[in-house]
Write a structure and sequence with these properties.
Two copies of one chain form a homodimer. The first copy, chain A, is built from ten helices and eleven strands. By secondary structure, chain A is an alpha/beta fold. In chain A, helix 4 (about 65-70) packs across helix 5. Chain A is globular, with a radius of gyration of 16 Å. The interface of A and B includes residues 200, 206 and 225 of A. Strand 11 (about 220-225) of chain A pairs antiparallel with strand 11 of chain B, so a sheet runs across the interface. Chains A, B: This is NADPH-dependent F420 reductase. Chains A, B: Keywords: Oxidoreductase.
Chain lengths: ~230, ~230
């Protein structure tokens, strides 16, 4: 498939790299192509800057959000939660009607430091905000409950014996997304129903962050045992 | 141990019954002993009224919140989230200094129907509110992430191969609580650190409730796979 990955950080890199490896035609979208290609320092977590990563990914193109979205059947929102709505607004300079948007962001607010709080929660979610503002998009919330490396290579922990969630209003879009998740190696994809299911998965983040501190690693996931 | 279980509903019954079965001296606390013993109809979920349950539990006493708390080394808050602070205030007519309070309630607000929202979240929690108002109590948040039957008989699903969380400021209290959890059959107790760890476990409830609807049963739990 033709896939646009919005976001050039470590999450976007993980998704773009894995999708390209699986044979998809991947374009990474960014606000400012020149600015992204001028980056020379690691991000705040010590991850390599985009050009260094991209040097090893000759098949992955870089373009503006709108250029990347124009050609794609599927968009992946891999921007940070606070950058999500502006990024998709920029992408919507292209016609997004009927396209699938896989939203893997979390509404984290770091304005008061660590741990972050959530800027939307409980009776609304980032997934719902996207679906409400872009009714022509078919938004599927997924993958926001695990670290980037495990999103795309779930077998790195317990041979993939854990769970990933999915929520969205469009059954066809969820079928496509479930296929992508299975191609990554996910074996237990739970469909939580319509996009309001995003609330629960986004509200898992405070527990996830606490567990990361307790276990001293982001390489874990939850399994729904039933 | 001498244990006071605050709350006469299905959660209080599950805890009191299991603790009595394990040989503890259990008193159930209620706001109004006469009113509780006059109940003849099932609760909103079809669970039997307290007197019917109590008829099969000759060793379990019923008393006011304060009478139950006065004699106990350990208190279990098994009231609903909205009834929690009033119940512990009533119990605090007794001297609670140094006692352990196991808080298993969730701050669910049903005022707008189902699913409930959370009346405290994100930057605070019910567990923290209890610890702040009753600094002499040693509050341990636990068991609020699974259904009552599984709290006390975890082996009913996957032979207990799933996780329960614990958060609190007092290491000695957590050691006592971990021992009780293990006596119930829990095999994976994760200590999330101080009482602020309650935030993440309480915020799991929207996902838990959604999963209950999706799986059509409350008999499931999450396992932290690492």
């Amino acid at each position: 498939m033709k896939i646009a990955v919005l976001g050039t950080g470590v999450v976007g890199q993980a998704l773009a790299g894995r999708l390209a490896e699986l044979g998809h035609e991947v374009t990474v979208g960014t606000r400012d192509v020149e600015g992204t290609m001028a980056k020379t320092s690691p991000d705040g977590m010590g991850n390599p800057p985009y050009p260094q990563w991209a040097a090893g990914q000759p098949k992955v193109r870089l373009a503006t959000f709108a250029e990347a979205a124009a050609d794609a059947e599927v968009l992946v929102n891999a921007t940070s939660g606070s950058a999500t709505l502006p990024a998709v607004r920029a992408a919507s300079a292209a016609d997004l009607t009927g396209k699938i948007l896989i939203d893997i962001a979390n509404p984290l607010d770091f304005s008061a430091g660590f741990p972050p709080s959530l800027f939307v929660k409980d009776t609304d979610s980032l997934g719902e905000q996207l679906q409400a503002e872009f009714p022509g998009l078919r938004v599927v919330k997924t993958l926001n409950t695990l670290t980037a490396e495990l999103m795309v290579r779930p077998r790195a922990v317990a041979d993939g014996n854990h769970t990933v969630f999915m929520a969205g209003n469009d059954a066809g879009a969820k079928k496509t997304v479930a296929g992508l998740l299975e191609s990554f190696g996910h074996t237990d994809v739970i469909d939580l129903g319509d996009i309001t299911g995003a609330r629960g998965t986004e509200m898992l983040l405070p527990l996830w962050l606490r567990l990361m501190g307790t276990l001293n690693t982001p390489m874990f996931n939850i399994k729904v045992v039933r």
